Amino acid sequence: MENKPVVIYEDADVLVINKPAGLIVHRDGRNEEPSVADWVLENYPSINGVGEDWISPQGEVVPRPGIVHRIDRTTSGVLVIAKTEESFSFLKQQFQDRTLTKKYKALVYGQPKEESGVIEAEIGRTKKKPRKWIANFAHGKKRAAITHWKILGRYSDPESGEKLSYIELEPKTGRTHQIRVHLKAIHHPIVCDHIYAAGRPCLLGFERPALHARSITFEKHSGEKLSFEAPLPKDFENALKKLVA
């Protein structure tokens, strides 16, 4: 498999990887492209059967060996995989209870007035085709998705002069496209996001949304607390070198 994950950490209970952008976590029932799930089954056959399969809209049973959470195909970064059923259940509970911490880095269009903030809005699907996810601030907060953010730097694109911001995000919930939808909702979509910043120029050499899952902190069932970081990929490193303060 080209574009393979890189192992950051491994023990008897968990596997932590750095997923490259462009690699899907598991098949979506519509195609047969390579996935993280395929890589796990090829390299860690003992994980087969750990966790829960996914049923596609077409009724296909899609294996998800040890996969507790997902990041988008176009997003790079850290992903934790359970190697045992006990570890899977324990990690899943932490996601449900919001007791683990995930942090992302992103480059966005524009510069928010504030230095930090919290976005709290429900996420639903648009009725018009092509259907996509959208934030709704009008509904109650019972099912609201929550994203904390803070500015790491305010910059300009050296070629166009467009104002940009480098930000850190900490989602407290795990809805589909949550960070991307929430940033669009506050009028600062991610650079080169083909869905939520459609029609805007892909600046700084990016060919995919400028979003990276930087770190994750969680507990094992033994009580041990672990924290891992995925290094910034080359497109991020190159982009940050180009930015003008």
Question: Explain this structure to me?
Answer:
- The chain is of the alpha+beta class and about 240 residues long.
- The protein has a single domain, classed as Pseudouridine synthase.
- Helix content is about 15%, strand content about 35%.
- The protein is built from four helices and twelve strands; from the N terminus they run ββαβββαβββββαββα.
- Strands 1, 2, 5, 6, 7, 8, 9, 10, 11 and 12 form a ten-stranded mixed beta sheet that branches.
- A hairpin with a 7-residue loop joins β7 and β8.
- It is globular, with a radius of gyration of 18 Å.
- The termini are far apart.
- The model has no long low-confidence stretch (mean pLDDT about 90).
In short:
The protein has 245 residues and is of the alpha+beta class. It has helices at residues 36-43, 85-97, 178-185, 234-242; strands spanning 6-10, 14-19, 54-55, 61-62, 76-82, 101-109, 116-125, 133-136, 145-156, 163-171, 211-219, 225-229. Strands 1, 2, 5, 6, 7, 8, 9, 10, 11 and 12 form a 10-stranded mixed beta sheet that branches.
